[in-house]
Amino acid sequence: MMIDSILRNDKGKSSFLGKIDPRIKIIVFFLMVILVVSSPGDNWILYACFLAILLILMILGKLSIAYIFKRSLVMIPFVLIMALFLPFQARTGEFYTFLGMNISRSGLIMFYNVLIKAWLAISSMIILSSTTPFPALISGLEKFKLPGIMIDLMSFMYRYIFVLLDEAHRIENARRSRFFGGRFFSEVRVFGNIIGVLFVRSFERGERVYKSMVSRGYNGQTILLNPHTITATDIIFLISSLLVLALVKLWSLL
């Protein structure tokens, strides 16, 4: 359960930021992501301000930079693949020549902007998930009237992804013990069979889980043993965060 150990972070959930109401944190972090994505691309000092805010949130959440950086590396390669062709798409402006290829200056700026904005946004979501228990996060999203089907998908995906991974490992071990290599097309056929078996087992397990939950009174709502209530500390944190973000955005506009 290596992935399970990565997702758990009891230290962050027991910190000051971890004790803040999840609804307050959802508002603050999603607003920050919106401001990061909508910020102008040539204002590097603005990125430094967002980075400083992230560092403060890391301290409040008892999270290290190494922890955030390691978890962000999971998503950065996907962003890098999408942004890799940006320097070669611009047709006007200043160009540089590298290994016989023309690279535009505006494309390079777009490339850096995509990477920086993606990392800041991903790091914000990592801090949110690392300082908020998953049931509390789901309950907070329900309070904002997020569609029930999305809540259920996220909830079941988080709970049973490890079960499916264990199932896939068992099937792969069985394949290795019975398959001694062969041509490319025979290997593709074997992997196709593995995917089919995994799909059938996942479907059957999902039916059993759904029937067992319905028989125990499941009605689609997340029930917490300790429901959250908004306190004065939560209000102060919300006002302070909104004030800081508003000042940063106002400064960028001026």
In short:
By secondary structure, the protein is mainly alpha-helical. Helix content is 71%, strand content 3%.
Please give a handful of descriptors for the protein shown.
254 residues; mainly alpha; 2 domains; two-stranded antiparallel ribbon; 11 helices; 71% helix; 3% strand
Describe the 3D structure:
This protein folds into two domains: 2-132 and 229-253, no CATH class; 148-215, no CATH class. It is mainly alpha-helical and 254 residues long. Helix 4 (44-60) packs parallel to helix 7 (105-130), helix 6 packs antiparallel against helix 7 (105-130) and helix 9 (148-178) crosses helix 10. The chain is 71% helix and 3% strand.
- Average pLDDT over all residues: 79
What is the total tally of β strands? 2
How many whole angstroms does the radius of gyration measure?
23 Å
Tally of helical runs: 11
Profile the largest sheet.
2 strands, antiparallel
- Weakly predicted, low-confidence segments: 1-8
How far the N terminus sits from the C terminus, by CA atoms, comes to 50 Å
Tell me the domain tally.
2
Oligomer: single chain
State the shape.
flat
Instruction: State the helicity in percent bands.
Output: over 70%
What is the element string, with H for helices and E for strands? HHHHHHEEHHHHH
- Percentage of residues in DSSP E strands: under 5%
Structural class: mainly alpha
Query: Major sheet: order of its strands?
Result: 1-2
